[in-house]
Specification:
This protein is an alpha+beta fold. 47% of the residues lie in helices and 13% in strands. The protein is globular, with a radius of gyration of 37 Å.
Amino acid sequence: MPWMSPLARIRDALAGQRARDKDLRNLVSNLPYEGLDKWKQPNRHFRNNGIKTTKYSVLFFIPMNLFEQFHRLANLYFVGLAILNFVPVVQAFEPEVALIPICVILALTAIKDAWEDFRRYKSDKKLNRLPCFVYSSKEKCFVEKRWKDVRVGDFVKVESNDIVPADLLLLYTSDPNGVCHIETANLDGETNLKQRRAVPGVCITVSNTDILLIIHAVIRTGCLGFSHPDLVLKQHLVYLKGHETKAMLNNNGPRYKRSRLERRLNIDVIFCILLLFTMCIIGSLGHYLWLESMPSVPLYLVPQTDGHLDTPSLSSFYKFFSMIILLQVLIPISLYVSIELVKIGQIYFITNDLDLYDEETDATIQCKALNITEDLGQIQYIFSDKTGTLTENKMVFRRCSIMGREYPHKENGMFLCGPKRALKMYIYKIKILMFTKSLPPNQQETEVILDQKLLRQIRGTEKIDAYQDFFLALAICNTVVVSMATAKRLRVSARLTAEFQQTNQSNPLDTLSSLVRRAGSWTRLRAPITSETSANDLTTQGQSVNQTGGQTCSLHVPPQGTAPAVPAGKLCYEAESPDEAALVHTAKAYGFVLMSRTPDSVTVQLPSGAQLRFEVLDTLSFDSNRKRMSVLVRHPISKQCILYTKGADYAIMELLETPYGEKQQKAIASDTQQHLDCYAKEGLRTLCIAKKVLCDGEYESWAVQRQHALAAMDNREQLIMDSAVQIETNLCLLGATGVEDRLQDSVPDTVMTLREAGIQVWVLTGDKPETAVNIGYACRLLEQDDLVINMSCKNLCYWEKQSCSADPRNVDTTPDISLVIDGRTLTMLMSPDLRDRFVDLARHCRSVLCCRVTPLQKSEVVKLIREKLKVMTLAVGDGANDVNMIQAADIGVGISGQEGMQAVMASDFAISRFKHLKKLLLVHGHWCYSRLANMIIYFFYKNAANVNLLFWYQFFCGFTANAMIDHWLMIFFNLLFTSVPPIMFGIMDKDVSAEMLLGLPELYRTGQGKGEYSFFTFWISMLDAFYQSLVAFFIPYFTYRGSDIDIYAFGTPLNTISLFTILLHLSIEIKAWTIVHVFIILGSVTLYFIVTLAYGVRYLNYSGYWTLQAQMVDPMFYLVCLISTVIALLPRYLFHVLKNSITCSPIVEARHLDTLEPSTRDQWIKEWRSFRGRVQDKTSDVSVPPSPSLENLQDDTKQVKL
């Protein structure tokens, strides 16, 4: 590197900063400067492509980590106390000893943070070393480089299914039109393909100089868009890389949610602080009164060097701070670290649960929120999307109506359901194999059995134009991308999951998930393969094509020839939504095959074999306001401008020709509407198909307005929508379709189980009411015996009672109430004057179904219920329209489905099936909450029971803040002897087995509301700690009173009794013993005696030298320890005995059932559940204990006020 003066370096650095800050970048190719020194590179001012998501560096780790940790007020508090102990007048014990607890806590937290950061470093290293192909002027070909070595100004080649290493400018593709398609699922979660074009005006020639000049001109005058190509051969120019890419610049970091348990914990910490200050005030006043009660100055009060002695009031003021230092353990300094360790262990068990693994998608549950696992056990309301969450979101064509005539496709309906489905599928595939010699792709969208009546109609001559237009609309009016079946893309949800799954599973903190969000500039590419590439050239398991030849591919343009026609059987369709794929496959099944699509044309093969190439004049994309999309094409034969439109039924019906038109059109519209209503009642997703023929003058006039709207700078979106609405009028109805979105496996059982667990289930969907209600009955959200309240703007509230009075069991009972409401009515009810009344009505309903709601309304409903009812909420969805709802709830769960990864990226937990919610909440949620709640309560008890021994001793030492236990042993007591058992208790304890929690969902209700961790349980434990400390102190005191033992000989049995009491107290609380619990508890006792004995032997200057050894040869020591421990634990033991025998809770009964044989236990559960189903309103008469709050819930249901 040549020498440069400091001033030159400063000028170069400032020039680089100015170049990076410019909105317009002037880039120069690196090819002529290849191999030159860094200071001679034209693009040296721009950052490298290396990604760094770590928070710390090796050099500055300690100061930066301490700075982060001191954001916690608790750490500042304990550091302040340790510093205060260095002041001689308030010193409670050796200053160095006071630093040990906080230093150990800071060190443990630093080790955890370093481990997390090291995981990020390894992930960064793995990403930065991924290979890519960069053109080399020396080698005259593309050479393999690592991602971090890519520089601004390099030419990069990206092949099919490759990941893009940086933000690239598309220069050339193998497509003659310069078009490619990308998938940005790792960037924004969207799995639909996006179309990109090469920069116009770029000429790729043999001369590298020409390339440089033209590219330089383009970059100076053009706009640098986010273009990621995906055809077989593509050249790009790197213009943004590393931390300058849009993915890194848009990274805001993960959201932080505080659990309800953590909020309650902070309140109890405040109570402990108040209790500590009360005890310190008592000590200060006691010291003052003790000094005032003395007739003269005692000899042991040594004055200062100048002979001055502090007054009693000043001395008591100093003792206040000394007492704070002495009793500081009352505030659990290690509790927060212990909670984090417990949550890591809980997440480990959740992520390694095989029942939460989905074999079809090869995906496990992802835990992205470390700090709210316990909230899974307190959920009271679940808000769920329908499409893709309750259903598969794999659309299958079921029925259609064309020109007012309905074609039910009965065989296709029988093919999709029933016990003979597998046999029918087998027969169907055999028929396909006989006629086509090949099997169709294994996708539900392609499973279409033709309706013979419709097939004969197409082959006939009657109304052939209308039927042809219907299927042409299905094939044309979409955004489906066509490629060969051999070039099918690899979806990110499968490939990246397989690539990084091992790292995700081995990291309970899920740091890689946040890393993927931060370093999300990867973009999955796909490309059609030319017919010259055979299937044998492709690697298996979805690997990239032509990887071996990538290094020798030249930058120069290959000769273009006319590719032969692609057989229809080898076509592959990539659609933005499953609905589009189902309709295109249906059109293909009837002979209208979508052959190719370019930005300017679309080619369709007719049943006769002839191909029609339509010129695409414009595409009016779908939006949530219009609820439809249109494609304007020019017919290749008639040269007419035809507008094909598809959309929601209500959005199309109101745009048809005036009712004063032909009677036939009115009859077709009426019959089609009846068919649509029938489809909706069957739970099918409906779409209307329409067309419009425009004259040339009308089209030209509209095209001018369209161009003005596209070129507008102000209010552009509204002008574009207005132009679309202007042309989408006076449509001619062609027909309608009904597509089935089947329920996922075990959805009805999951909904019923969640409801039995005391969880209110709401479904918020954008579907029409008829479809949503049908799905509601199918998934058992609504029952046939329910009293259904349908609310709409037309008739604000009317009742629909279905088969309620016909059942004799419903005599003298109040039926369960369900509410169905549409989006417009919901908007009215969300107004301030009706909001409270709506919440009051909804909370008395067993289930609520909201239809035709927008994403914003979903989030508003969640916020309203959470804030008004003060309940724990969970939102679950799978698409981008569910993100607001997921983020508004206390816990957001994303489902990795067919609508992209936006919901997963915004969620706290990610699952692959709705049925996984059952075990996630009822088992893991219950365990996480129960374990953590009991562990926190035990932690407060443990510290209070130990520190109160020091407090009682102050009454006998003049409140001088002295201790009868050695300071080192006091530190070891909390750091070594009693630290690990509560952590193991919080990770591994099981109050009830998973089988019982799933078999009796009512057990989940014990965690709802206040749950096990409440104001009452906290203060009961604190009072128990005070009682045990009194017993542990005064029994040895009265035993040794009048003897000649010193204070350390008196403190040794106190410390031993406290250890035995605390550990045996934990043994009483443990519900499920394992070898780990036994080993930890016995190991803690053994460690205590070993350390205390070794400490007493080693330090000869220790005032308690050989103290424990002398105590252990005295039988009185063992007798005192035994009697004190038994008396101290007797109330706690009697409380558990009475609780488990007289007033048995459901949890206790469930533990009793766990002791039975599995067959007997399962039979008992089955009989009890069946009996409860027959006598649902009389569960209190069942011999088994009723579910918590079940009677209250039924009383609330009977008091419904409408």
